[in-house]
Specification:
By secondary structure, this protein is of the alpha/beta class. Helix content is about 15%, strand content about 30%. The chain has seven helices and 33 strands. Bound molecules: alpha-D-glucopyranuronic acid (GCU).
């Protein structure tokens, strides 16, 4: 029997925080005319996929958007115009243009576009049947970098940021029968962007994740959060403290008195709730003795079938419950110390590169990580697609998810800050119910300055406002030692729960000095080595002091893992990197050939000798 018990103080504050963020943030952050707040759990909605072959036009000088005076033209390609009379002059025709597979990047689908950074227009036609009392939302999983979206010639909005989803309410722009969506995509790099101008991965351009038409009732559950409150996990307690689930949901409209029913059949939990004036429900549900909760963990990645019903719609989800916290230099999963046996990875398809997308790509890459003995992955340096997160959750792999505040960001630019906030918000709102995500990372290898500290400290605060249930971190760096003593010093230590840093002893510095190295990390917090490693060309063999040989990389791992074992409070590592990945910064012919070769696997999935060193080391953890 569920007893909505009086709400303990800490849960009350947690609910207030979630409620406040649900209320305050979402509606306003960088939204355009038809854009609507991000809809959660999209894959379980009533969706029509618009994936498939889309026509595309490469528009180097944005002829389809600006006139010859560089003013936006109203005769642009978004009109999808066709000659009406023989003398009419229309100098583009999507339907005569080539097609490429969407989702997918253009770099690996059209060899002319391998290095291309600029504008490409995409066009797709689809059938639609308007329905009474229903809305149609157009959802993009991600578009890199800037997307300007048109439906039947009408501008829906502009979105920036290549790794987070966005959606538009297109109901009133659709008509019965054939409809046309056109997207102007531009992946040109700019210093004020997020990421900024330079980054060590391939700038894959295009509509890189799903495009979905989502059919929802006029009033629908926009998003929800269901978490296990932190209080419960006292494993040694004679009898387990009753578990408390904290649930909140928000409708797309500020409608009071709307019923929302949360059901978890396996727990015989069915809770009827009613929305307040904001269209929001909040509840803290303390489970009864018979409702023993099996917690999610890498060894037992238990997920419960959950139903959220409102009006004519029932959303289903698979949600795991676990607690994650720190105690001194320990990371506790479900109250137990855990060592994060990780690896860093990019969202890149094996065998030739290209943006990975879909469950199959995820399963391939994550199984490579599992083969190394991993229970954790750092998804670098941007939010990866939802399939990867859900597949990792199913496989029992914990996740570090990160926004691309990478290297020299424009710290004093307000637009850059808003953009980063938006990416942080959307990353958290998309994946807030994924039990396997334990760490939100707000940055990687950022140069020390007061401006940077100001920017990132506010970002850390915002992450906590958006989600107070997970750990916050960032990849700091230690780039030098004096007298073999490596000191981590970073003002941001006070804003994070876990101090993580990248170090490249044996590759970028102090080759073969790892055995002599000492570490000073003056913070009473768990330590994660978020990057270490070195390059090797798979199959290239030689002396262990010969750069680029597998033996050099193997020896580097032998020395580094022994060195890392000496670090007090070491709670995890995510060596750089799971597999060789494409990068325009890696130009050494015959060795790199535009690949970063620090993979433990080659791009083709061949295991390098160093990978066995890591696997053996993780057996000791
Ligand atoms: C950096 C950076 C990575 C990069 C790696 C490397 O630490 O975070 O994105 O690929 O080093 O140099 O290989």
């Amino acid at each position: 029997m569920i007893s909505p018990s009086p709400i303990p103080k800490n849960i009350e504050t947690m609910m207030k925080k979630i409620f406040a963020t649900l209320l305050v943030f979402l509606p306003f952050v960088g939204m355009n005319a038809q854009e609507c707040p991000l809809v959660g759990n999209i894959l379980q909605r009533n969706i029509t996929s618009l994936n498939g072959k889309w026509h595309y036009i490469v528009d180097v000088q944005e002829e389809g958007y600006y006139d010859y005076r560089m003013n936006p033209t109203r005769w642009g390609f978004f009109r999808n115009a066709k000659p009406q009379r023989p003398e009419d002059l229309i100098e583009y025709d999507f339907d005569k243009a080539a097609t490429m597979q969407i989702p997918g990047d253009w770099n690996t689908q059209d060899e002319r576009l391998f290095f291309y950074e600029g504008t490409v227009w995409f066009k797709h036609s689809f059938q639609y049947q308007p329905k009474e009392g229903r809305k149609a939302l157009l959802y993009f999983g991600a578009v890199n970098y800037e997307a300007i979206v048109y439906v039947n010639g009408e501008k829906m909005g502009r979105h920036v940021g290549g790794f987070t989803p966005f959606n538009y309410d297109v109901t009133k722009y659709l008509k019965k029968g054939e409809n046309v969506v056109i997207v102007k995509v531009d992946n040109k790099r700019h210093k004020d962007n997020v990421p900024t101008q330079i980054f060590d991965w391939w700038n894959y351009g295009g509509i890189t994740r799903d495009v979905l038409l989502v059919d929802v009732p006029d009033t629908y559950v926009e998003n929800y959060s269901l978490q296990l409150a932190k209080t419960v996990a006292q494993p040694k307690a004679k009898k387990a403290a009753p578990a408390t689930l904290v649930f909140s949901a928000r409708l797309n409209e500020k409608k009071a008195g709307e019923p929302v029913v949360l059901s978890i059949p396996e727990l015989k939990l069915k809770q009827q709730l009613t929305t307040d004036a904001e269209g929001v429900v909040n509840a803290s549900l303390t489970l009864g003795k018979k409702q023993r909760l099996q917690l999610w963990s890498p060894d037992a990645p238990k997920r419960y079938h959950v139903e959220i019903a409102s009006g004519s719609e029932t959303l289903v989800d698979s949600i795991g419950f676990r607690t994650i916290e720190t105690r001194g230099k320990q990371i506790l999963l479900n109250g137990q110390p855990v060592f994060l046996k990780g690896v860093s990875m990019h969202e890149e398809r094996p065998n030739g590169g290209g943006r990975a997308n879909g469950t199959q790509d995820a399963r391939t890459l994550l199984s490579w990580a599992k083969n190394l003995g991993c229970n954790f992955v750092r998804l670098a340096h941007y939010p990866h697609n939802e399939y990867t997160i859900r597949e990792a959750e199913r496989m029992g792999i914990m996740v570090w998810s990160e926004i691309p505040l990478y290297w020299t960001i424009s710290w004093t630019n307000a637009g850059t800050f808003d953009n980063a906030c938006r990416q942080l918000t959307d990353m958290i709102r998309r994946d807030q119910n994924r039990a396997n995500i334990i760490i939100w990372s707000i940055a990687n290898e950022t140069p020390h300055s007061a401006q940077r500290d100001n920017f990132l400290s506010r970002m850390a605060q915002k992450a906590r406002e958006l989600d107070s249930t997970r750990l916050i971190s960032m990849a700091m760096e230690v780039t030098g030692a004096s007298n073999y003593v490596n000191r981590l010093q970073d003002n941001m230590n006070q804003y994070v729960d876990v101090v993580s840093f990248n170090q490249y002893i044996g590759w970028y510095r102090d080759v073969n000095d790892a055995p002599k190295m000492k570490w000073e990390i003056p913070y009473d917090k768990p330590v994660i080595i978020s990057e270490f490693g070195g390059g090797a060309k798979a199959g290239y063999h030689g002396a262990k002091n010969q750069r680029w040989t597998e033996e050099f990389q193997e020896n580097l791992y032998i020395e580094n893992t022994a060195m890392l074992d000496k670090i007090e409070g070491l709670s995890g590592t995510t060596p750089w990197v799971l597999k060789d990945f494409r990068s325009p910064r890696r130009v050494l012919d015959g060795i790199q050939d535009y690949y970063n070769r620090k993979g433990l696997y080659s791009d083709k999935g061949e295991r390098k000798k160093a990978s066995y060193v890591l696997e053996e080391w993780y057996k000791t953890k």
